[in-house]
Amino acid sequence: MFRGTRTLAASLLLGLMLAPAQAQTPAEPAASEARPAAGANAGAAAETLPMLNSLGHPGAWRSYKARFVTDQGRVVDTANGRISHSESQGYGMLLAVAAGDRDAFQRIWNWTRANLMVRDDALLAWRWEPDKRPAVADMNDATDGDILVAWALVEAGEGWADEGYRLAARRIAVDIARRTVLFRTEGPPLLLPAMSGFSAEDRPDGPVINLSYWVFPAFPRLAAVAPEFDWDRLGTTGRDLVLRARFGEAKLPTEWISMRDGQPQPAAGFPPHFSYNAVRLPLYLAMAGIGDRRYYEPLLALWSEADPAGLPIIDTASGSVAGRMAEPGYAIIPALAACAVAGAPLPAGLQDPAAGENYYPATLHLLALTAANMRYRPCLGR
Description:
37% of the residues lie in helices and 7% in strands. The chain is mainly alpha-helical.
């Protein structure tokens, strides 16, 4: 999802002023028995595990649902004018599966179909604003939101033996592959952040990518419903880029990366920051069962000492701290990374989500708990 203080690249070229999906105030800026041992992977995704009933924290889901999911099934981004977007709907659907809550899943899916699936293809319009008419003013998609919704449908289809969910997942997955993945004859495939605004035709430094849109645990699931596309190769490309796209002294990825001529560089027109998007990278790696330290090394160094002010936003050009991700939910990401790589226990205080925080850190917190309960239960003391 388009998040932070920058605008969508398409708006720079096409005059579409897209507000960020995670704008923040200055004080708070924009179950399987067979589990792989932490750190045991050599970089490939581990065995795919079903997500149904994997959260293991009914109280956390009840609180999340009460605060962020309306009776109609709209998942509300509380830090950004109470909008909704394809990302929030996808995350809500995933968490409903993880909580085993089919009623909530169906409500969220119904709202998503009725309000975001308004394009001429099977992809989703990325943003819905409650105080505007039309509520969907921009028909562009956001590929991470598309992937999350399709992944959630695969999990629901398998978990609840519902072929309708699987068919819906297939339709979305096919259009993700056809419209947003550059399966190239020369060079590895690339995942564009949206259909419009990021290709070589749209930008002088294009194609431009965002590594946090590579939702690694989703690709094997999409392969199950759309096997004619090479999702494994797409995942391999993403993992390779995690190792290559390391900028500045801190060796961190920026949010937006130019792949012109095949060499990753910070994209023009965006702050060269490691920030709210990129913090999802270790979450997705851990959810996929990838425990190879190489993928996490710069992050483990960045987070080697906890700071009560929150996780730092790093300007990779200067090496300076450009802000903080201050809400407590973000703190579970470094803990999950240390768990995935070295089996470090999750601090007891992070096993219960904090009350009162906004949609995005609360969502990351529950997803991290799901990952820990699925793959790294010794880190939870279980």
